[in-house]
Amino acid sequence: MKIYLRFVAVASVLFWTACRSDEQTSWDIDVITPLAEARIGLDDILADSNIISAPGDPLVVRFESNLNLLPTDSIFSIPDTTIGDSFALPINFNLPSGFQLLNLNDLVRFNYGNLNITDVILSSGTLVSTITSRLDDRVLYSFSIPKASFSAVPFQLLDQSLDPASTNNPVTRQTNTDLSGYVFDLKGPSSNESNQLQLTLSARLDPNGNGSPVSANVSAFEYSNQFLNFKPYFAKGFFGSQKYRTENQRISVAFLRRITGNLDLEDATMDLFLENSIGADFGFLIRKFKAMKSSSGLTLDLAHPLIGQQQLLARSTNFSIYPASFSTTTKSFQLNSSNSNLKQVLELLPDEFEYSIDAELNPLGNVSSGNDFIFNTSNAKASFALTMPFKFAANALYFSDTIKTTGFEESEQSPVTQASLFLDVENGFPFDLKCTFELLDENRIKIDTLLPGDIALAGLVDETLRVRQSTKTIMESKVTPQRLENLNRTRYIVVKARLNTVPEQTRLPMYIDYFLRVQLRGKGLVRIKL
Amino acid sequence: MKQFFTLIACLFSLALLAQNPAVNPPKGTSIRTDIPVEAIQITKIRLLREPSAVSLPANHANLEFLGNYLSNSNAVTTAFSNAFLNPIFIDETLKETSYKRLVDANRFGLEFSYGAAVSFFPDSSWRANRHALQISYKQDNFIAAAFTADVFRLFFGGNAAYADKTAELGKSAFYNLRSRSIYIDYKKVLKGSAFSFGLGVVQGNNLIDTRINAGSLFTEAEGNFLDLQWKGKALIANNAQGVSPGFAARMSAGTSFGRWKRWFINFKAEDIGFINWNSGSTLINADTSVRFTGLQFNDLFNTEWGTVQPADSLRRIFTGSTITGSEMAALPWLVNASLSYSGGTNANYMVVLDARYRNLPGMKPLLGLSFYTKLFENLHTFEPLSTRLTGKIGFCLGGFGRFNSQLGANWEGKNQIIRAELSAIEGLIAPRKLSGTGFMLNYILKL
Questions:
Q1: Can you tell me the ipTM of this complex?
Q2: Which residues on chain B are in Cβ contact (under 8 Å) with A523?
């Protein structure tokens, strides 16, 4: 048996030795292939809504923005309000049948701050009425809001009743009433107050009942009314002299943070449109509008007569409540190259704007004698529209961005042994483009630069300065073992592109069909290992 | 290659060393001639057949170890395919030897299997009723490829040589299966005949089954784009997402006939079954026509560079419809028929005509003609056992290759059988233009 075991052992070792090798089966393949492609056109950068020029014409772009001058719900903020009362006695007592528990004529006072609202029509809102009894006998009650009406009918809950209850087993009734469309007279009982609403509640024991005992200091009967989620359709009164100050607010234009250099624009115009559809005078003051370039620290204040000058937008006039009809007061201003430094502001390529604006309601006081009004569609707003021909000259205009990456780890199974990368750039823009890709390691230290000094030549323009023929440039980058190692270590790629319009010193119009197509190709030996 | 021959030489040496000296004949003795022919024919003639083909051996059990490797191709040279057995770097010179032999429809097949089996022939009513039982384990690895010349050149040479040209891809296929199985076989021996039937459980390890019905690849002169068209399907599965169980059956039937039962016909079918590959299997049905100009990064300002997966993106571009889920796939079944004749006074030679086919892409029926002769035999008149050495020379046609040769030896001792065979060795006994390589080693320990 020994000899057999010896045979098996020796044969196994020989077999293993014969088959075993540290080397992998491998071979080289010569590959030529596209790797990646990108196309960037002006139609990718500009939304259709920003283009106002006719198709085929030089591009004219328009950027619009709206700003509400009154904070949302500043007038229409009607807080939820709760009112209630209860009946209790300090001693034990037997109430006779027909006993009057409550006979209230209460006033709800809405907290409107310094606004004096006299009339409100609700577009939505809910009244939650809750009545609770701990009395042994039936309770009869009536509830009404005499000055809240719908189609001229006051709100009433008449001849309601609650079944007999006990101290330990109270009976509660909750009634939810949709108050949409209700007209509220908030002038109070004397009709010359504001923010007040009168409620009446009458509650008594059933006259045909047996009466009910009441324990000392125990609430035998209670009610509450909650006015919830009031959204006015219309409000009237004196809205007070309210000031809304916006101090050093900033608008970020992050995209422009990546662009620096010298830009020469053809022209630029900004239309400012102020609009007041509130039945109250409106004061408006732009105290500051400053452009800032964070990379250089440069700032430039917008200069125009509008800046620092108080503007008054007269009140709107109400023509009818149903349907809502009112006039709108407007004022418009135009900022252009002749009356402002708008062009210089834009040529700064600002990545941030800082502004301070004051707005004020009724700067002249209660000149309407309490007849200010507002509809839920009224507003005071400013509209900005920046219009400019997309025509410029650029000299050393830089685009710079940093891309994070996890590294371009080379596949262990397919190491590249010898290769070249080709970047084909088809340039349909009228500017030379010099791109470099700086590879940074995890400590943001530069370890390599791809395509240094290569320039993608500008498309060729005709006598009208329109590009008629794109230009194709091929840039080659050798892939060396060191470069592969660098790519593997890369954690950040700094993309730098320098633009120079061609011909120089000439403002060139842009067209929507301008594009840049970039294709990365590879050619080289790849080692396949099994 | 040197290592390979060293291995074979050592195996033969070991086979001779392993003989039991007690049953070795005296030096110079070959075949006994003093025994009446009738006696030999009745009691001692041992036809050159598979062990226990139509009779149960005298021992009670066999312990078998089997290893088998065969690669064959009508185009790929032996030296080239050996690069996968004995890993080396395939240089341009080596590639060129195969490039020269490429034809329109090329084939390559590789089968590598090993395993162990225990066969029982107990002294009991089982033996009386001529029953036998076998439990076996085997690990199979099949690689089969059918490919155009362009596919081979693309795969091993790359597409640069096809700049401004179209490479034809169809019809091509690649198949790779790794699996293991455990079989239980029952065998019934009748008078001069035998029948066996086995059932097995199979576990799939890896499957790549790619069929290209039609396809082409055009490479633009500067590599600006690739135009790929392919119609076909692929199933890719492995055991990373869980177990892939399967079931299989096999059977064989053989009978001897003619005067002195010298004729023997045998038929067998194996690996008739399936594997239910797990839910991580990928089924690709492609009818794709795509111009590839590179991975698209048109929204440069919003691209999440850290999440770009080029491999996934490429796969989506080139594969078309992809479904992930459980898939059932048939095993590469095998059918084999053989007819043999044992001739000579002492049945000291045998001629075997053999035909086999395994359902693998590219494979054609493999027809074989083999001649076996006793090189040495030590007969014992009153003992059922003897010692002998048999040589084999064979030729075959078809399969994955063309016309190939085989050379083998079978040594059977009192307690063990060793069979070693070299298959289709290029240049061994035939001109170098024959391609293919392989060996078979079978060791049976009689218990």
A1: 0.72
A2: 160, 223
